[in-house]
Design a protein that fits this description.
This protein is α+β, with helices and mostly antiparallel strands and 224 residues long. The protein folds into 2 domains: 62 residues, Arc Repressor Mutant, subunit A, CATH 1.10.10.10; 150 residues, no CATH class. The protein is built from 9 helices and 7 strands, in the order αβααβββαβββααααα. The radius of gyration is 21 Å and the shape is elongated. The C terminus is likely disordered. Helix content is 41%, strand content 13%. The strands form 2 sheets. It has a 4-stranded mixed sheet with strand order 4-5-7-6. It has a 3-stranded antiparallel sheet with strand order 1-3-2.
């Protein structure tokens, strides 16, 4: 089978059965090839970028994004942080690590290099207050923003020196106001600092709304 035939075959499996990840056994049954011949073919396709090897013995098409395949490793996990912000245009830098929040200790390695797709799939177990089971497959921009600040603080990184934020004015002020109390005080303060320092005239509404919440008030209200 040619690369185009393989792509069409897997696309059909997705359209008919909503399936995006395949084992060696499944691919052998679909193609009628022996496992030995299939191994050789798959190695070639992974090197050429047609297929992606997610973990040993599990394959899919390169064009399928991380949020469409993480349920094969963890049905409760969702993409958040840097990746989710980039996906929605709030960060300019392309992430090399896709962070997924989960509610369980992972059966796979916490960091999974995805061959030929040039990113690492990372599973993080946050506190119960931070994890949101309804966020699948991608966290909302507001939750992803809070999660990103949380991850940066946890790893000793200053968020706005690590990435370039943009269009923060479009964040939903009510969602941020509801989310921040679930995070440590240091994360709350860092999030408010970033919104204050990066705010423009159009972002005054976001900052003023956050100042209205008593638990998030500082000695001086945030202003532009």
């Amino acid at each position: 089978m040619t690369a185009i035939q393989w792509i069409k075959l897997l696309e059909y499996q997705f359209e008919k059965y909503n399936k995006r990840a395949f084992t060696i056994t499944e691919l052998a049954a679909l193609s009628g090839m022996s496992r030995a011949s299939l191994h050789v073919k798959l190695n070639r396709f992974v090197k050429s970028g047609v297929f992606v090897r997610y973990i040993h013995g599990l394959y899919g098409l390169k064009k399928w994004p991380p949020e469409q395949i993480i349920n094969y490793f963890d049905t409760d996990a969702y993409c958040t942080g840097h990746y989710a912000l980039f996906k929605n245009g709030f960060i300019t830098q392309v992430p090399t690590t896709v962070t997924c929040f989960t509610n369980k200790r992972h059966m796979h390695s916490n960091r999974m290099p995805i061959e030929s797709n040039a990113y690492i799939l990372e599973f993080v177990l946050p506190s119960i207050k931070i994890f949101d089971s309804s966020a699948r497959p991608n966290a909302s921009p507001e939750r992803a923003f809070c999660d990103f600040i949380f991850l940066c603080r946890d790893r000793g990184v200053t968020p706005d020196t690590f990435v370039t934020f943009r269009k923060l004015a479009s964040l939903d002020k009510n969602k941020i106001r509801g989310l921040l109390p679930n995070y440590p005080k240091t994360v709350q303060n860092e999030a408010l600092r970033i919104l204050k320092e990066l705010c423009t005239e159009g972002q005054v509404g976001v900052i003023n709304a956050l100042n209205e919440r008593p638990s998030l008030k500082q000695k001086r209200p945030i202003s532009c």
